[in-house]
Design brief:
The complex is a heterotrimer. A four-stranded parallel sheet of chain A has the order 2-1-3-4. In chain A, strands 6-5-7-8 form a four-stranded parallel sheet, sandwiched between helices. By secondary structure, chain A is of the alpha/beta class. Chain A contains twelve helices and eight strands. In chain B, about 25% of the residues lie in helices and about 25% in strands. Chain B has 18 helices and 34 strands. In chain B, helix 2 crosses helix 3 and helix 11 runs parallel beside helix 12. Helices cover about 55% and strands about 0% of the residues of chain C. By secondary structure, chain C is an all-alpha fold. Chain C is globular. Chain C starts with 12 loop residues before the first helix and ends with a helix. The chains are: A alpha/beta, B alpha/beta, C mainly alpha. Chains in contact: A-B, A-C, B-C. At the A-B interface, loops of A face strand 24 of B.
């Protein structure tokens, strides 16, 4: 089976670290991806805020390209892209008329047959079975697993983890030796797409998420979404300024943590690109 | 020569708004054999019935068709009118123009056409009706009450006091139900156990009541007045006659770590136990699933210490076969538990408890002797939050209904808390305060005005723990939807009331309907709230829907009266709409070939064998025979009979064919 | 015929919301759980449960208040409200609709100017290259919002960490993307 990847725009730019870690662990486990050829942006928040049709057409083109190239299973590391692709698949399945209209817009056939995996599903399916033998340096740290919004909601459409107190990320982290703390902010919003236009709101919301994690003694916040990462990591100076605080807790992608546990060097999994210094290893 | 009378009812406007009743009456009047046809605004009214009675005499009618509502509504009314008019009541048929036509269609010609067709079928049918005589059956004057909560207790006592025998079945080791767990009761704040325990003792001592605890219904057969009930008396591992209830065994039992059901898991109990000090009967049972002897094969300490040698480890379950005339179902309710509400953290955080747990905390006989202490560290909570509608009125969680009792008990909880912790703060998140009932709203106002309970109108989004405190994130919708965050020491969820576990299973054994939430269904939502669809089986209390104590008790007395009325008759008459196997003269005796396929499908065990003997006493033929006392007229045997030897009185094959042919033919 | 079919088509905002995104405002019984869990409710001029209540009134003045509100632009589509709503009302889809309707009727709240400028810059970036060009987005947003000093320190740090490309990546199907934008009237 050909195994596709939709990296999404962030992973080529501001979330290069995430991209590096995904590819690094894939390589370590002997997994290969084919990038969906000529993929485009999913439209993110902007598209569905301003234009419903566009917000469906952009992901539909991506999925149609995957179908055309025989990529039956696609991993989507970015939680935001994952959400857009799954929601589009759901909407077009629900409404055949809408599907026809969107096919007309994208000038391509679209069947909706792709299996879309988020990063944790991918880890569960392909990494976990071979993980134990590869661990050389267990990730023995207290961690706060932060899922954010788009990985778990709307739960009835994503049909992935439960929306309240989800567990999948916690389970993956405990398998590499981490001790997840009870963390009620798991699925609270970081402010998402308001990062640039309303930095104050993002600083406020992300600050609460960081404060609670530090308060509970976590040594790192574990994420699986580049948007969450950029808000919690890149926006840290804004957050500290807003809350008049000095939060130092690093924000680590789940793939980076796995990379460290199987002995990959910090550079290889992009840890040196973070704004908040990662001292733990 | 048939002379049929047809009476078309307008049902006010229920029928006439969409059906042209005049045209129906006129068209039908022109049919062959219809001697009289008329219309009237309310056929069920006194003048309407007189119209029928008079017409029977005047036109010498041989059959009547009342074209009105469902037979379930008024068939008995019109049959009675016909009888009074001198016609056998089974020569009266109903054409259902309301539920089958006017209520489900728009006003137009086709609707009237359909109405005419419905009436025509019944005219053809009634021509073939025969005069039937009601069947008489005896009545066993012993009632069974299933469930020993307050509703079951009330029903049992009321029936027993009319002089009839009652058998009470309770599945737990003691009667008393949820009421025995409650601290004080609204709206009077009288002590629950103080008013309940005398009734429990009365049940145990009443000469007309036989009590079986730790017992469950195994199967139910038969019909009104003549049920046969099998009851499984689970082994208590005890000789109840020998046991004096001294309690030595329960104190010496080495296994002491079993969550106590009566304390809602907030205390522990041993494996041999009496559920609570005032239990009736006050005799222990061994919980075999948790007893060391049954698990590991050794221990027997209870047997060693028992002064009267009453322990019986090898005691088997016992099956009782009981003859019962009427059954009252009073199996009560449960409350929804933990994992149902992950956003409220119930089951995850110790200090988030449900309403019944709070009752135990507030109860003088509870695990804290009535001191409100939080489960995690035994501290007295200074700030407490009550959340109403935790699960109720929540279609997303599968429960759309209002649990009815929570508004009141939440007010009571907040009040009890304030009475015990004067300096403490109590907050209630609510959506509406539903306090209809005598002195109920006054009670809620008292909580607000005198005890200064802070009522906040809005739901809570989430509750989580931080530094040993519970953070409650809610909203005050009366402040223009303003977010509210309360740092609480304890949270009490008024979780939804749901059907008792095992209710569905019991309903199926009893052949009684139940709703999608597994609550038992009444026969009519307004006029038959105590009856079920199965004659002779009645409902009492919260097995029907969540109810408070006064409602449960009133209904229980209502059910008792129904039973008493039934037992006041020496024999019962029932409709003769039963199946019969034909009989012919010897040597054939019947067209029945004796395959007895009918016997295997009959749901009521109503089919027997009849042997025909020659003069020398030799059996020459065995054919099916139907016990008309047991037959419910379902017709399954008729459909299955390969030799067409069975017919259903009142719904014979020829009658049904006549209806179908009427529809196929032009008129 | 069911009772609801007897209603004539309602010429109100609640009517159009129901028609376009199948959200029935009248299902809301005002428990406020959406507002209680909304991460931005305290920033909003109309918290989500208030939007629902105003819709229910079907008064033109209240419809106007909704479309001109700041709140509909502050909604971050975190979906917490839908996930916890006892009546399963899809508020996020409704918010999407209200935003698009507000733009169409030129009733966008002035305070939402920057939020919309960002969304527009974002889509502009995709329109021409097919993928997001982050530096281009920031520059275009600054042009639209006239907010020159914001995040000025961020860019050099990003560049030093290899997180910001100086030049955009053009996909092959840029013409294809342009046609998608045109057909959807973006």
């Amino acid at each position: 089976m050909k195994f596709g990847i939709y990296p999404g725009c962030s992973l080529t730019g501001s979330a290069r670290d995430y991209n590096e870690s995904v590819f690094a662990i894939a390589e370590a486990f002997g997994l290969e991806f084919t990038q969906i050829p000529d993929w485009n942006c999913c439209g993110a928040t902007a598209a569905h805020n301003l234009n419903k049709e566009l917000s469906l057409a952009l992901p539909a083109r991506i999925l149609a390209l995957a179908e055309k190239n025989g990529l039956e299973e696609i991993i989507v590391p970015c939680a935001a892209c994952y959400s857009r692709l799954v929601v589009t698949q759901h909407e077009l399945k629900k409404d055949p008329e809408l599907k026809n209209r969107i096919c007309e817009v994208i000038e391509m056939d679209y069947r909706g047959t792709s299996v879309i995996l988020n990063v944790i599903e991918w880890i569960d399916k392909y990494i976990i079975p071979k993980l134990e033998e590869k661990i050389v340096k267990p990730f023995n740290h207290k961690v706060a697993c932060y899922y954010g919004c788009l990985l778990v909601r709307p739960d009835k459409i994503l049909n992935y983890d439960r929306a309240e107190d989800p567990q999948t990320l916690d389970i993956v982290m405990s398998k590499i030796g981490a001790a997840p703390v009870d963390y009620p902010f798991k699925t609270e919003c970081c402010g998402a797409g308001l990062s640039i236009s309303r930095t104050d709101i993002v600083s406020k919301l992300s600050g609460k998420i960081i404060e609670d994690a530090e308060h509970r003694g976590a040594e790192a916040i574990i994420v699986a979404c580049p948007m969450c990462h950029s808000n919690l990591d890149m926006r840290r100076p804004d957050i500290n300024k807003y809350w008049k605080a000095k939060y130092k807790i690093p924000v680590i992608f789940v793939t980076q943590a796995i990379g460290l546990a199987i002995g990959l060097p910090a550079e290889k999994v992009g840890l040196k690109r973070h704004f908040v210094e990662v001292k733990i290893s | 020569m048939a002379r049929i009378g047809v009476f078309v009812c307008h049902c006010g406007e229920n029928i006439s708004a969409t059906v042209d009743c005049g045209k129906v009456a006129e068209t039908i009047g022109n049919l062959k054999h219809v001697a009289y046809s008329t219309e009237y605004k309310y056929m069920c009214s006194d003048p309407g019935q007189t119209l029928i009675k008079d017409a029977i005499k005047e036109h010498n009618l041989t059959g009547v068709v009342v074209s009105a509502c469902s037979p379930r509504m008024h068939e008995p009314t019109f049959r009675k009118a016909c009888a009074e008019g001198g016609l056998n009541p089974f020569l009266c048929e109903m054409a259902n123009l309301r539920e089958h036509c006017s209520w489900v269609h728009e006003k137009n010609e086709l609707t009237t056409e359909k109405a005419i067709d419905i009436v025509r079928t019944q005219v053809e049918k009634v021509k073939l009706n025969s005069a039937l005589q009601p069947i008489k059956v005896p009545v066993t004057k012993t009632a069974m009450v299933i469930g020993g909560g307050i509703a079951g207790i009330q029903s049992a006592l009321d029936i027993a006091n009319t002089g009839h025998k009652v058998i009470m079945i309770e599945r737990s080791p003691s009667i008393g139900g949820h009421m025995s767990q409650l601290s004080e009761t609204f709206p009077t704040l009288d002590c629950s156990q103080c008013i309940l325990t005398p009734r429990m003792v009365e049940v145990a001592q009443h000469p007309n009541i036989t009590l079986y605890t730790y017992a469950e219904v195994e199967s139910v057969e038969g019909f009104i007045g003549n049920f046969k009930v099998k009851v499984r008396k689970k082994a208590k591992s005890l000789d109840e006659k020998a046991c004096t209830g001294c309690g030595l065994c329960t104190t010496k039992c080495p296994q002491k770590k079993i969550p106590n059901e009566f304390e809602q898991g907030m205390g522990m109990r041993p494996a041999i136990y009496v559920p609570f000090p005032q239990a009736v009967p006050n005799r222990p049972v061994i919980d075999r699933e948790n007893c060391t002897y049954y698990i590991k094969g050794k221990c027997k300490i209870c047997e060693i210490v028992c002064p009267t040698k009453a322990i019986r480890f090898d005691q088997p379950d016992e099956i009782l076969e009981l003859e019962i005339g009427a059954i009252v179902v009073a199996t009560g309710f449960d409350i929804k538990h933990a994992d149902f509400f992950p956003e409220y953290g119930h089951g995850r955080y110790k200090d988030i408890i449900d309403g019944l747990q709070f009752e135990r905390l507030a109860s003088a006989s509870g695990p804290t002797a009535g001191v409100i202490k939080r489960p995690s560290d035994g501290e007295i909570p200074k700030n407490i939050v009550f959340i109403a509608c935790a699960g109720s009125r929540d279609p997303a969680k599968g429960i759309a209904y209002c649990s009815k009792i929570c508004c009141m008990y939440t007010a009571k909880h907040a009040m009890l808390y304030k009475h015990k912790v004067h300096e403490g703060k109590a907050h209630v998140f609510y959506m509406d305060i539903r306090s209809g009932g005598k002195n109920y709203d006054e009670f809620v106002r008292r909580a607000i005005e005198e005890d200064h309970v802070n009522y906040i109108r809005g739901r809570v989004s989430t509750v989580f723990e931080r530094d040993g405190k519970l953070i409650v994130k809610g909203v005050d919708t009366l402040l223009g939807a303003q977010q509210v965050e309360i740092v609480a020491d304890m949270v009490v969820l008024a979780t939804a009331g749901v059907a008792s576990s095992g209710a569905e299973d019991l309903a199926q054994k009893l052949h009684v309907s139940y709703d999608s939430h597994k609550f038992f269904a009444e026969a009519h939502p307004k006029l038959k709230p105590v009856e079920t669809n199965t004659a002779g089986i009645f409902l009492a209390g919260a097995c029907q829907n969540p109810k408070d104590i006064p409602d449960a008790v009133s209904q229980a007395s209502g059910a008792a009266v129904k039973v008493a009325a039934l037992f006041s008759q020496s024999e019962l008459t029932r409709e003769p709409l039963v199946a019969i196997v034909n009989r012919t003269s010897p040597p054939t005796y019947s067209t029945c070939v004796g395959c007895f396929m009918c016997q295997s499908v009959c749901p009521y065990q109503a089919i027997e064998r009849e042997e025909f003997k020659a003069r020398d006493g030799k059996v020459v033929k065995t054919v099916a025979k139907i016990n008309e006392g047991l037959c419910q007229g379902c017709g399954t045997c008729v459909a299955l009979c390969r030799s067409k030897s069975i017919d259903l009185l009142g719904y014979s094959n020829t009658q049904v064919y006549a209806e179908v042919v009427a529809l196929l033919n032009e008129y | 015929m069911s009772h609801s079919e007897h209603h004539t088509e309602r010429n109100t905002l609640a009517g159009s919301v129901e028609k376009s995104v199948e959200v029935q405002a009248h299902k809301c019984y005002q428990c406020g759980k959406c507002t209680a869990g909304c991460p931005v409710a305290d920033e909003m001029d109309l918290p989500p449960s208030m939007v629902m209540r105003l819709l229910q009134t079907e008064e033109p003045a209240n419809d106007e208040r909704i479309l001109r509100s700041h709140a509909i632009w502050l909604c971050v589509t975190c979906e917490m409200c839908l996930s916890r709503c006892p009546m399963e009302i899809d508020i996020p889809s409704m918010m999407d609709y209200l935003r698009q309707r507000a733009r169409k009727e030129k009733k966008v709240n002035k305070k939402a100017k920057n939020i919309i400028a960002f969304h527009k810059s974002f889509l502009n970036s995709i329109r021409f290259t097919g993928r997001l060009y982050e530096l281009g987005l920031i520059l275009d947003y600054k042009r639209q919002s006239l907010n020159m000093t914001q995040d000025i320190s961020l860019a050099p740090k990003m560049i030093s960490r290899g997180k910001l490309h100086l030049f955009p990546t053009m996909i092959k199907g840029t013409a294809h993307i342009a046609r998608i934008f045109k057909k959807t009237r973006t």
